[in-house]
Amino acid sequence: MLNLNKNIYSDLEFLGSAEKYVENIQGVIEHIKLFDDFSFEEIKTLSFYLHCYHAPANYTLLEEGAEGDYLVLVLSGLVRVEKLVFRQGMTTIAEVKVGEALGEMSLIDGRPRFASCVTIEPSDFAVLTHDAMNEILVHHPRLGNKFLLVLLQLMAQRLRETSDRFLSGGLSVVV
Question: pTM of the full predicted structure?
Fold first, then answer.
């Protein structure tokens, strides 16, 4: 087994490689439109590079401004995405359900986290590190490129949703 998890969440219960949970992950992924074109074998291969954890309620999975080059795939539970907004304090910008990814921007560009992500209820999640993504690209280039395309589609979708909210007055920018 690859050791590409870097002990990111050493204070949490480590559930092991996602290989053990491939059927659960397939059950989660098959409900995500972006993964419609992934076969069971592709999900199984991808699972080899994921490591799973369990977090209690009110646990910060990702902290705004922190370094990090990995993404989190929510397998169970519910996660609140919050951002520090000037003169408004910590503001909830989204709630993330099972099957959604968090931290994809930092996985791609290696820059600090854009927002904090806190579990609302006990949650299981899988981690894909930048190193693991590189391993996928080297050993399974077709799968790696397919997965990157899914991440790009996800980021484009979120950018469009944010732009729509901004243009409709749902978000404000303080200059």
Answer: 0.83
